[in-house]
Amino acid sequence: MEKQVFIETYSRERWGTDSLKWDGVKERYGKAGLLPVWVADMDFAVPESVQEALTKRVQAGIFGYSLVPADYVASYQGWQNRHFGTQFQAEWLVFSTGVVQALYDLIECFTNLGDSVLVQSPVYYPFYEGINNKKRNLVVSPLQKTAGGYQMDLANFKAQIIEKKVKLFILCSPHNPVGRVWTEEELAAVLAICQQQDVLVVSDEIHSDFIAPGKQFVSALSVAENLENLIVCNAPSKTFNMATLLNAHIWIPSEKRRATFAQWSQQQRATEYSSLGQLAAMVAYCTGDEWFAALKQVIWDNANYLEERFKEELPLAEVAELQGTYLLWVNLGNYQIADLPHFMESAGLAVDYGSWFAPESEQYIRINLATTPERIIQVADRLVEAIQKLPKAGI
Ligand SMILES: Cc1ncc(COP(=O)(O)O)c(C=O)c1O
């Protein structure tokens, strides 16, 4: 599908649709009318085939208790075989209503109160919230920023694991917000440390379908030498923009850990799963390739556009290389903006602030690229104009 056809067919005006990203701006930022490029959902509708399947199901009018569709896993495996080829096995799959919920559940099931859980900062803030809310000990191993981009600090990672007796590590792969797609070597190194130290790795791979041209996604599943200490979470929700259809995957290869989780679930999470979510995902996995290819074209072109505009007009802005995800991580620190949230709001933009991801990233913003090129042009115009108006002494 041509990119322009995709945009004309699928882009939507979302004001007045109870959208968190659009209608929730006033509550979140204290000001209405900001152009929202914050929370990670997209301004594009799901593939027509999915809309049709959901319409048919809604018209049938029955939403009683349901079984997982027989072809569900095969449809996902088909998607995998056509994309990255990760070998997910049907018996590993446990459903969840979301990846964040899955992380909360896995922390609770596989660690005890006060146990140490490690993350690599800056990172998606619900990781911190999950660890803190579950009253575990948050351990942070910062990523290192080098001339070549963000790297894992393996020495610090290992030292923290040993010193704090870490029990569980939440890997973000690809990494939100820094946009890294971890290489096989990096994953092998980090998984080997966890294996040696008997740390359970929960790999959040929700962004794994968004991989920049020329980059290769490798799942932790394809690298780990021993699958006993690995759980992978992923979902159709980012890929196809269906977060509130409440359907996510927890892949638990270890039979023993599956049994532990099943037993824990029996006591702690008596939830049904989303039949609409499963239907939508299954249809999307079977028929969404063309839609997804066009979507990715929009995203990478938006990224390139912003990178070019910033290079020419905001030369002091540092844009992290977008290897994966649809979230651009931009350091405005060289402009020495005293109060970044106030500044962004005066510029008319609702972005994710770096401080949400790590205190030391307070001069960063995260821009959601999954919108139309017109809106991305407006983002650039507003940011460039606001920065160019800064008093020169501040620069
Ligand atoms: C790394 C990561 N994990 C999980 C989520 C959210 O997943 P869910 O909506 O399934 O809870 C996001 C959303 O942005 C994310 O970036």
Question: Care to describe what's here?
Answer:
With 395 residues, the chain is α/β, with parallel strands linked by helices. The chain folds into two domains: 3-47 and 289-388, Aspartate Aminotransferase, domain 1 (Alpha-Beta Complex), CATH 3.90.1150.10; 66-287, Type I PLP-dependent aspartate aminotransferase-like (Major domain) (Aspartate Aminotransferase, domain 2), CATH 3.40.640. It is 43% helix and 14% strand. It has 16 helices and 15 strands. The protein has helices at residues 3-10, 20-23, 25-29, 48-60, 72-82, 99-110, 126-133, 154-164, 184-196, 220-223, 237-240, 255-268, 275-287, 289-313, 340-347, 373-388, and strands at 35-36, 93-96, 116-119, 137-140, 144-146, 149-151, 166-172, 200-204, 230-234, 248-251, 318-319, 327-331, 349-350, 352-353, 364-368. The strands form four sheets. The chain has a seven-stranded mixed beta sheet with strand order 2-10-9-8-7-3-4, sandwiched between helices. Strand 5 (144-146) and strand 6 form a beta hairpin. Helix 6 (99-110) crosses helix 12. It is globular. The site of pyridoxal-5'-phosphate has 13 residues, from helix 6. Pyridoxal-5'-phosphate binds next to helix 6.
